[in-house]
Amino acid sequence: MNQAMIPTIIVVLVIYFAAMVFIGWLGRSKASNFEGYLSMGRSAGVLLLMGGAIGGQIGNGFVVGGAAEGSVSGLAGSAYGIACALSTVMVAIFLNNFIYNNGYMSMADYTRARYRNEIPGTIYDLSTAVSSIGLIAGQIMAGKALFESLDLPGNVGAIAIAVVVLLYSQLSGLWGAFATSVIQTGVILVGLVSTTFVLFSRGAVGDMSAAIEAGTLAKSSLDMSGLSAAGFAGMMLPLLFGMVTDQPTYQRVNSAKSAKISRIACYLSCLVMIPLALMPAFIGSYGAYKYNASGNSAFFDVILNELPAIVCALIIAAVLAAVMSTIDCGLITMSTVLTRDIWQGALKKNPSEKQLKKITLVVNIGFMFTSTALALSASSILGLLNSVYSFLAAACFVPFVGGIVWKKGDARSAVAASIVGVLTVLISWIPGVVFPFGNIIPAGLFPIIPSAVAYFLVSLLPHSEKAK
Description:
Largest sheet: none
Number of helices: 18
Helix content: over 70%
Distance between the termini: 70 Å
Low-confidence stretches: none
CATH superfamily: Sodium/glucose cotransporter
Number of strands: 0
Strand content: under 5%
CATH architecture: Up-down Bundle
Order of helices and strands: HHHHHHHHHHHHHHHHHH
Oligomer: single chain
CATH class: Mainly Alpha
Structural class: mainly alpha
């Protein structure tokens, strides 16, 4: 890497950090009360909703992780990004009206209404809190990898990202998360398109095609042949099941001006994300070809060696945009599930607006600290993200769907399904454990099966007189 680039990159990053905090400061009036902090009072239009939808998906798994997968499997490395895009369409078709018309701010609102019991909702809230720690940590890991690629202290970079996001998300709540995500999505779009254009203009495709013809490069480097239907299903389904229980989905849909506007934003978000998903995979594939790069370095090796300083700085800002746009949604999630659902809902507290702000600040600081600590010790980005989605789906998917399709389902069966699902996930994390039918059913989906069985069987048990 040309060390002369470093001053330009640092200046651009400092300006970018300052801009994000400034946007948060501009939107502070949008979070003048706690309800506005969480939902903007149902005032979001298509652009803000797209920012929330795309920003919540295009994290490190999409950009850095997509490039890492591309270095191994070529354009098939875009599978995660394409799955993210398609999941937004599934939300529009199956969840959008259900969430909006019922005014559900979280899945806990649904479980309370369906089961008339606090326990299933509390399980969802705690599961969401735990999974959000992993999700935020995964984003911070990407930021750390970026700073290390620049020969800068990775831990310092990770902490800087955490502090900046905490500042602007605390200032303006959900509006700040969506508004900054709009800017960040634009930066990502320009950055990835610029990188792809530069590589194309320098003959990257021609060079790689020649290598394929010569037999020195796998054909899958420039096509989707490295992706099987089963492999894509294994990537798509845990993400989709996790989306059903994903807290930011509920808040995004519920913040829209209308259900129709929310659906339109989902469809447009998908159209933007699919072509974007192909770009990191191509960049990573080229990195493997040209620099023998792999893992997280596949993305950074290309941009640091192939691009002019100002373009490189823009791309790095794009990666940080991807990281930060997902982190801020995670912080808003924490405020919803812990402060609104548990503190105000389950514990029946009625704090003042001033007290709510203090509680939210303490919650956000605590979870940001925990997530940063995890990020500084973990190693695999996509592995962490897949574990997060599997855990959340195992705890919450069956109680949600079961409550809709099985009338006999009750609070007991919902709790049993969550416990069995989570235990199955924990068992799957034990080294050497292999579930049956592993060649047919992806490990991330298998826990849903025993969870559903538990839900069905417990729902058939007779109620005691006390329960009645």
